[in-house]
Automatic annotation (TrEMBL):
One family name in Pfam for this protein: Amidohydro_1
Identification of the protein by name: Imidazolonepropionase
Keyword Hydrolase recorded: yes
GO molecular function: imidazolonepropionase activity; iron ion binding; zinc ion binding
Length: 416
């Protein structure tokens, strides 16, 4: 797809303060889904850093006039559990009426309720159930999404979830990266033998997911109610052995050292991190690992321990922001809502929030050299907005700010 975007006020998200400031109107030339030139529009003032528009005369170009609208990189939701079956609104109501999570779990609720429903669903049903949630994310300007498995907890069901996630690209203009989260919880049939389940994950599920090209990364819920450090390291080692990237659900409920362990294995990101300490932050700095903030889960669970934002800033850790869209702890399908929550609950700035869903989110999925910025050579995944300043994306929720999405250089006329 070859396209020229005319009169775009670009928020490039390049490094430095200029990357957050809207530009004079610019023209963006896109060839085969990549940005090949950025130049000043006729009505603007050419700066020394921009080249005159350059197009290949042998190619045909479509033209889209942005009419001085703000253009940012397409938003990236780098942590979701988008594919699942079942509904847990009844548990939400029970908790508000004083029923404990333990009692709900004893009744067959909690994550195992989602596991039971997901195992029973056909792959095509999982796709159909995921589409309305995906549409919510598209409305908030998302062009790339990471989707985790983790509600199957058997070889066949984990692979089924990953196939369903990849199939979403056949239904919407979206880029999907997939993460195998088989080590999400101990399934009921392994209740008394979690190490045996880790054997299954390492010896069968990871190899099959890698062999079939279904996973880009492997994740582990390293927590007192999930998997311990020894079990987590076994999964990380197996992921590395099979050429898969690493991510981690770490330091959400306690400080177990999971983030430092993930950093040791060169993880792309560690996510939640409310209980992360300075030693863990320093480990992230040494490995270049991003920290993903998940304010939706913090809000929904009424948590009080905030992520160490000041420490993350001090050590220049890229802070990504994601929805954690899932049925139990963050049932939210709006990434701009997460930007607002990050600012109001965690004290990030609007600039940090926008970087958290663009360039830093790209780092969290291993795409920092391809997505998340508006620069020559980057993928032409963009969002066009009816706003005057990028801070509006963190400020006002519920107003339909999105004008158009552009995915792989194609203007999406989403019927949503």
């Amino acid at each position: 797809m070859n396209l020229i975007l005319k009169n775009a006020r670009v928020v490039s998200m390049s490094s430095g303060t200029d990357g957050y400031q809207p530009s004079f109107p610019q023209d963006i030339v896109i060839e085969s889904g990549k940005i090949v030139s950025i130049s000043c529009s006729n009505q603007g003032v050419l700066t020394s850093e921009l080249q005159q528009v350059s197009v290949d005369s042998s190619l045909d170009y479509a033209t889209y006039d942005c009419k001085n609208k703000l253009v940012t990189p397409g938003l990236i939701d780098c942590h979701t559990h988008l594919v699942f079956a079942g509904n847990r609104a009844n548990e939400f109501e029970q908790r508000l009426n004083g029923v404990s999570y333990t009692d709900i779990a004893k009744q067959g609720g909690g994550i195992l309720a989602t596991v039971t429903a997901t195992r029973a669903a056909q792959e095509s049903e999982l796709v159909e159930m995921a589409l309305p949630r995906l549409d919510g994310l598209l409305r908030s300007g998302v062009t790339s999404i990471e989707v985790k498995s983790g509600y199957g907890l058997t070889l066949d069901d984990e692979l089924k979830m990953l196939r369903a996630a990849k199939a979403l690209e056949n239904h919407r203009r979206i880029k999907i990266t997939t993460t195998l989260l088989a080590a999400h919880a101990v399934p009921p049939e392994y209740k008394e033998k979690p190490d045996s389940y880790i054997d299954l994950v390492c010896e069968e599920i990871i190899p099959k997911a890698a062999e079939q090209g279904l996973a880009d990364a492997v994740d582990v819920f390293c927590e007192s109610i999930g998997f311990n450090l020894e079990q987590t390291e076994r999964v990380f080692a197996a992921a590395k052995q099979h050429g898969l990237a690493i991510k981690g659900h770490t330091e959400q409920l306690s400080n177990m050292g999971g983030s430092a362990l993930a950093a040791k294995y060169g993880a792309l990101s560690v996510d939640h991190v409310e209980y992360l300490d300075e030693a863990g932050v320093k480990a992230l700095a040494e490995s270049g690992t991003a920290a993903t903030l998940l304010p939706g889960a913090f809000y929904f669970l009424k948590e009080t321990q905030q992520p160490p934002i000041a420490l993350l800033r001090k050590h220049n850790i890229p802070m990504a922001i994601a929805t954690d869209l899932n049925p139990g702890t963050s049932p939210f399908a709006d990434l701009t809502l997460m930007m607002n929550m990050s600012c109001t609950l965690f004290g990030t700035t609007p600039e940090e929030a926008l970087r958290g869903v663009t360039c830093h989110a790209a780092a969290a999925i291993g795409e920092s050299k391809n997505r998340g910025k508006i620069e020559v050579g980057y993928a032409a995944d963009l969002a066009i907005w009816n706003i005057e300043h990028p801070a509006d994306l963190s400020y006002q929720v519920g107003v339909p700010h999105l004008h158009k999405r552009i995915v792989n250089g194609e203007v999406c006329h989403d019927s949503i």
